[in-house]
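Practice problem. Given the sequence and the SMILES for adenosine-5'-triphosphate, write out the predicted structure.
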Amino acid sequence: MNEKKRITFIVNPISGTHGKDAIPDMIASEIDAQRFDVTIRLTEHAGHAASIARECADNGADIVVAVGGDGTVNEVARSLTHTDTALGIVPCGSGNGLARHLCLPLNPRKALGVINRGVVESFDYGVINGLPFFCTCGMGFDAFISLKFAEAGKRGPLTYIENVLKEGLKYKPETYEVTDDTGARSYKAFLIACANASQYGNNAYIAPNATMKDGMMDVIIMEPFTALEAPQISIDLMNKTLTNNSKIKTFKTRSIHIHRSQPGAIHYDGDPIMTSSDVDVHIEPAGIRIVTNPNAMEDPCQPNPFLNAFSDFFNNINNVREDIEKSGRRIQAMNKLMLRKLSKL
Ligand SMILES: Nc1ncnc2c1ncn2[C@@H]1O[C@H](COP(=O)(O)OP(=O)(O)OP(=O)(O)O)[C@@H](O)[C@H]1O
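Answer key:
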């Protein structure tokens, strides 16, 4: 008979909004005791999931499952990189960005069903100034919005995102010098995000074309926008059409160096931290093994026709508004010219 696979569930009792009391019984009823040797551990403080997972990997566990949100997933996953131990996810957070990107069921019982099938694949992960991330990392306004978007599910995403973006208008854009293998460029931007997976969580798609299988990250540079442009950006974020937005510059790369005028905050999977003015980000191809949903490996990029219509609508409004502003400026310039000529008469 085959040896049983060793699997440890690491449960963060404070993640998300639901209690975790039912989880042990659910694990007992969903995970096949004939094939798996199950251990359940509860975290007692921040960082605890990372140390339990490291211990499991050192002891040659087959699977370590993060039962929590993206913070718990990050802690467990960073201890399993470049090991044979696979990461499992039972999404219990508020944003669940990685679980959504990988099309894992958000219902804990169904997520346990996926783990029970035990299909494992290798995926890329990223590193920002030495800190591993699995979904997104970034700087500028990005640290703020990634945090806010993780909470969006509780409040109705579209209007919430629009309000968060408008709040962001208080942020001063910064100048970033960005260097990749094609050379150096300078951008005045609200935020720079580097995405391994497509979304921040709650289906807010900062990088709709990102895949965790290409050995590349998607870099997203958001240029300064106005309050009138915020509704379109929020629709594009939800509709996987952000790359069509005129305020967005995006490209793929393996590694990048970003220089800003002073030290500041960055975030990795939504966790903010202060760092120096120089930031290095790179991708580690196929560096983490993850238990996947055999019915759908990654979220396919399919915009919603209804939101598409809204996106076009706001695009047109913005074009008309820009035309009006341009003709307004032309008329003002003509007026000035006329007044100057008249004053010389
Ligand atoms: N027992 C604990 N007490 C306090 N903090 C903990 C404990 N266990 C884990 N943590 C910390 O709780 C933080 C939040 O957890 P997590 O991100 O999983 O949930 P969430 O914030 O609800 O979900 P999401 O990130 O998807 O919004 C993590 O950064 C983790 O370090």
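Check your answer against the key. Residues 12-16, 43-46, 48-49, 68-72, 75, 93-96, 150, 201, 270 surround adenosine-5'-triphosphate (CB under 6 Å).
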